[in-house]
Structure formats: structure tokens, C-alpha cells
Design a protein that fits this description.
heterodimer; A: about 110 residues; mainly beta; six-stranded mixed β-sheet; three-stranded antiparallel β-sheet; 9 strands; globular; B: about 120 residues; four-stranded antiparallel β-sheet; about 0% helix
Chain lengths: ~110, ~120
């Protein structure tokens, strides 16, 4: 059971837009920065978004991040078949047992 | 461009100790946080802990009693030791480096190494 809750799967057609939610609490998302990762099987995870809404160099602006209260959202526009992957949110948890936490992951299918 | 490469045994017997090393190339290990993250089969990512280049560590509370991380700046390497392993420690283990950010984010990753715990 992950500390951060993500939908197990989402799907959309090529060219469309999709959003992936990440729900937490005041001890994690509510008071810390959120990052998002893309993970294709057999490869290294890739950082897509950090500090809630900032993109590393080389990440296209089709990917966006936002945060409101204790939830965060990853948005992907202009879906491509190459976007089909697992997506994870991550943040710091400042509870009695502090540490980095990840969501359970969301499988994106591009139909 | 910084690259990370994990190395270590692919098979570990319970209840022995899992030992992995991450070699950093294309950049210095200094002035960064370095992390170990794993993914058990069919499951999501799990943060194991991080080590700062100065040697300061922070471990996942659920693994803290079994984890030790160290850094060797002369070799540009950092390492993970996980004691008393069980089948539940079977996973792909990744090493990662932080990115310049206000919060923790892992911007450079190794390709991962599969570790199977089995007798």
C-alpha cells in the first residue's frame, strides 16, 4: 500500500490529452515538492517534472505538472505511442517516519 | 554527461548480505545526493535511502535496520549493503543522482541491476 495514491491505469488516443492524479496528505504532498517519473520496462526511470511544475532540460512542454493542496497532477498533451509507460509521482514525507515516498504507479495506454 | 552504472551479484542467498556499487562517470560525486531505489517484480518504486557526498545518510524507515550506504570519493563510487535478505528483497536496484531542485528529485539514473534472493 503506497503512501501516495495513483490510479492504476489511464488510457487515451494518440493526439489526445491525459491527466494522472497523485493523492497524498499534509505530511507529504501538502508540504513538500512533487516530482514525476516516466518508466518504460527495461529502462531507467526518467525525471519528467520536479518542484511540482518544473521540467528538466530536454523534456517537451507536452508534459506539465501542478499541485493543489494534498494532490498533484501530471498532464500529457498530444499523446504519442512512445508515451506508453508507467508514471510515478514522488515526494518527501515528513511524518514520524520521514523519507522519500512514491505513488504506486499509473500505466498509461495510448490506444 | 553524467552516467551511473550499478554492479554486484545478481543472486544472493538468504539470509546473506546484498552488496551493490554504483560507479559515477562523466562527472564528480561531490556536491550531490546519491540514492538507491528498487522495484520488486510487478510492483512500484521503493526508495531505499540516500547518501550525500560528505557521507551523511538518510534511510527508508522500513529498511533502516538493515541498510548501510557508503561513498568513496576517490573512486567516484557509492555503495549499498542490505543485510539479512529475504525473497522480498528480490528487485531491480537502481542508483540515482539528485537534480538541482528545491525538493528531492532524481534526475540521473542507472539502468538498474536485477538482484534475486534465492537459496
Amino acid at each position: 500500500q503506497s503512501v501516495l495514491t495513483q490510479p492504476p491505469s489511464v488510457s487515451a488516443a494518440p493526439g489526445q490529452k491525459v491527466t494522472i492524479s497523485c493523492s497524498g496528505s499534509s505530511s507529504n504532498i501538502g508540504n513538500n515538492y512533487v516530482s514525476w517519473y516516466q518508466h518504460l520496462p527495461g529502462t531507467a526511470p526518467k525525471l519528467l517534472i520536479y518542484d511540482n511544475n518544473r521540467r528538466p532540460s530536454g523534456i517537451p512542454d507536452r508534459f506539465s505538472g501542478s499541485k493543489s493542496g494534498t494532490s498533484a497532477t501530471l498532464g500529457i498533451t498530444g499523446l504519442q505511442t512512445g508515451d506508453e509507460a508507467d508514471y510515478y509521482c514522488g515526494t518527501w514525507d515528513s511524518s514520524l517516519s520521514p523519507g522519500q515516498v512514491f505513488g504506486g504507479g499509473t500505466k498509461l495506454t495510448v490506444l | 554527461q553524467v552516467q551511473l552504472q550499478e554492479s554486484g551479484p545478481g543472486l544472493v542467498k538468504p539470509p546473506e548480505t546484498l552488496s551493490l556499487t554504483c560507479t559515477v562517470s562523466g562527472g564528480s560525486i561531490s556536491s550531490h545526493y546519491w540514492s538507491w531505489i528498487r522495484q520488486p517484480p510487478g510492483k512500484g518504486l521503493e526508495w531505499i535511502g540516500y547518501i550525500y557526498y560528505s557521507g551523511i545518510t538518510n534511510y527508508n524507515p522500513s529498511l533502516k535496520s538493515r541498510v548501510t550506504m557508503s561513498v568513496d570519493t576517490s573512486k567516484n563510487q557509492f555503495s549499498l549493503r542490505l543485510t539479512s535478505v529475504t525473497a522480498a528483497d528480490t528487485a531491480v536496484y537502481y542508483c540515482a543522482r539528485d537534480t538541482a531542485a528545491a525538493g528531492f528529485a532524481w534526475g540521473v539514473w542507472g539502468r538498474g541491476t536485477t538482484v534475486t534472493v534465492s537459496s
